[in-house]
# Entry
Amino acid sequence: MITSIRLVNFKNFADETLRVGPFTVIVGANASGKSNIRDAFRFLCGIGIGYTLAEIIGGVYGSGGQRDWEPIRGAANEIIRFGQEKFSIEMELDDGRAHYMIEIGHHERKPDEFQIKKEKLIVESETIYTAHCDGESLRVRGAWDKEQKEILLESNQAVLTQLTIPPIPIESKRQEAFFELLPKISQPSFTLLEMYFRELSPGRMRESSLPGAKMLGNFGENLPTALEEICTDPKRQEILTSWIHELTPMDVQGFEFPRDPSGRVHLMLCETNGSKVSADSASDGTLRFLAMLAALLGKYPEGLHFFEEIDTGIHPARQSLLLELIEKQAAKEKVQIITTTHAPDLLTFVNDSTFENMSVVCRLENSHDAIIRRVADLPNAKELRKSQGLGKLLAEGWIETALAFTEDYDEAEGDGE
Ligand SMILES: Nc1ncnc2c1ncn2[C@@H]1O[C@H](COP(=O)(O)OP(=O)(O)OP(=O)(O)O)[C@@H](O)[C@H]1O
Ligand SMILES: [Mg+2]
# Structure
């Protein structure tokens, strides 16, 4: 599980760290940098997939011409903080069990391209490898080699995924040592791979899907077959219907999955009054709930789910239930959820553990850069949360005001030293 992420010269962050919990809520004004944090997680996910830097930043097209991977917003020119040459992303796993750092800059000879300048993986206090760029290639020293002989790897793809194919000759004794270390390399790599960036779109959720497509797509594709898969397991089906019963105003009692002549699977919602409604005419909010449930109750919910503005299209009266659902799912092992939100009501209902993992992103006056701070660390936040409610504090701009005050104060203190 990722427990923190540090961004140095990435987009509008000079050097900021976000603490990440089972459920992390990010608040902040428009254009403060919330989605830039999402971009950083997407960058890491691209590394986990094994894409090259050009692919992660510029996008990947499938053989049919469709996009398999969306470019990072701003692509090549705006990924590095304005005026800087390099950026780095550092993550901590399992409360310090592992640390991973990657630094990226423009290619020395081809300034339009990027290359890895440095990379490092530490697991259980052991440095598994370090890498630095020598102009063209990455020179890598690994713990598999006691003499720390360097091996050369490409500088356009993370060492983390290049190492999944042993870069050491078969006959070498070092290979045995390498295979012993491999689980320590592949575990962080899998963590990066298992990330889902949910941008639920009602249009995509209304589409029929093909039998066998059980994984929900990031836009909500395959909703019929993802739900059908949940319904094959009586335990998960019961949880699904009980949540749906509470969450939707029209009381869905169950689902049907009719096939059309071409074999595609459609979604029908069975209401309490006996009528059946096709996904085509179900409400946007209902479909959003269904897709969130399909994502979190699906066969393989493990991993990090990033929901941008989770409250979109959800009535305030239902937001507390939505929150309850997420907090319950995030309490499960290996499931992590991060969301951005502008909804005061959502904040009012967060439990104590979510409150501990709530951060605010803010651009202070006269500064391009953004800072990230835990809301619980703001002065009197805990007391004010109890007496006034976080929602009210967010709506009235107290969070940003308190932040501006403490940062000014800190700076003044620093000046005095
Ligand atoms: N390379 C960069 N260097 C400095 N600042 C940047 C860079 N790229 C983007 N920004 C800043 O980040 C801002 C966009 O941030 P972001 O999209 O994360 O906002 P947000 O908090 O998600 O806002 P909203 O709530 O409206 O979605 C831009 O307006 C710009 O000021
Ligand atoms: Mg945004």
Notes: The longest strand covers residues 114-123.
